[in-house]
Amino acid sequence: MSQVPMTVIGHKKLEEELKNLKTVERPKVIAAIAEARSHGDLSENAEYDAAKDRQAFLEGRIAEIEDKIARAQVIDTSEVRSDRIVFGATVELMDVDSEEKKTYRIVGTDEADIKLGLLSIESPIARQLLNKSAGDQVIIRVPKGDVEYEILSVRYE
C-alpha cells in the first residue's frame, strides 16, 4: 500500500469533502431513491435509475477518499528546510526567452489545480523541477515545445 503525499491543507479539504458526502449528499440520494420508489414501477422509472447511478458514484467517491486518507502522508510544508525543490515547494520561474514569470507550488495529486498554480508532484513539470535550486536552469517540455526556465526562488510556506 503506497502512501499518498499531501499538504495539511489538502488533507483537510479531503476530510471536509468526505464529511459532506456522508452527512449531506448521501442522505439526499437516499431520499431521492425513496421518492422514486414511491412512484411505482421501478423498471421504467428514470428518476430511480438516476438516483441509483448517483448513489453508486457517491459511494465510489467516498471509498476513494477514505482510501487516500488512510494512505495519506501529510506533510507540513512550513517545516521543510531545504534549498532544493521538493514536495511543497513554492517555485518562482522565469521563461528565459520571454522573461515571463510563473509561480507554482508542488502539491499532492488531489490538490493540483494548474489555474491556481498548484502542480501535482506527479506532473511532468514538477518532475523536471524536483531537486533543482534557485539559480538553476531547466528545460521543460510544454505543449508549445521545450521552454527554458530559470529558477528564481524556492520557498516553503
Explain what the structure shows.
With 157 residues, the chain is an alpha/beta fold. The chain has two domains: 72 residues, Orthogonal Bundle (Helix Hairpins); 77 residues, Transcription elongation factor, GreA/GreB, C-terminal domain (Chitinase A, domain 3). The strands form two sheets. It has a five-stranded mixed sheet with strand order 5-4-3-7-6. A hairpin with a 2-residue loop joins strand 6 and strand 7. Helix 1 packs antiparallel against helix 2. The longest helix has 30 residues. The protein is elongated. It starts with a strand and ends with a strand. The model has no long low-confidence stretch (mean pLDDT 90).
CATH architecture of the largest domain: Roll
Pick out the low-confidence regions: none
Report the major sheet: 5 strands, mixed
The total domain count is 2
Q: Provide the CATH superfamily of the largest domain.
A: Transcription elongation factor, GreA/GreB, C-terminal domain
Beta-strand proportion: 25-35%
Roughly what percent helix?
A: 25-40%
Mean pLDDT: 90
Strand order of the largest sheet: 5-4-3-7-6
Described by the principal axes of the CA atoms, the overall outline is: elongated
> Any idea of the CATH topology of the largest domain?
Chitinase A, domain 3
Structural class: alpha/beta
- Radius of gyration, taken over Cα atoms and rounded to an integer in Å: 22 Å
